[in-house]
User: Fold this.
Amino acid sequence: MSKRIGFIYHSYTGQTEKVLTTAEARLKTKDYTLTLDQVRAVDANPKVSEVTLTHAPKVDDYDLIVLASPVHAFSVPIVMKTYLESVSSFQGKPVMLLVTHHFPFKWLGGKQALNALQKKVEALEGQVIIKHSVEWSSKHREREVNRWVEALEGYLSGWVSHE
Assistant:
């Protein structure tokens, strides 16, 4: 049976989804199945303080999870926070974290968001294996996306061959 990789994500402006579709296009292989599984809410506006989810991906559906989110107001947006509150456990699964942001420095939100995601995933028994931040407004954006995809490819090549 092939490994199932879930790209569980929230993308308000579409930037986070673009990074994931880039990865998906490069990673298509017979050794694993990739699924883009978007967390959706009735109102995904980052300025609201509460959301009702219309789709909450099931972590049980995947062997490995890529959890991806934009950064809003220097932190994880309410849609992703609400989603993580709905997850009962990551059951020891490997989890890769990705955030996208427009801040010129990772310490202006990217790092805080990654740390908050890691804390929540580990509290839910997930094993964080890669953390990465992509600054969307950077002239080096494409290089950062490629670095993340290469890290993902490297992990997956070892992960699939060891099973």
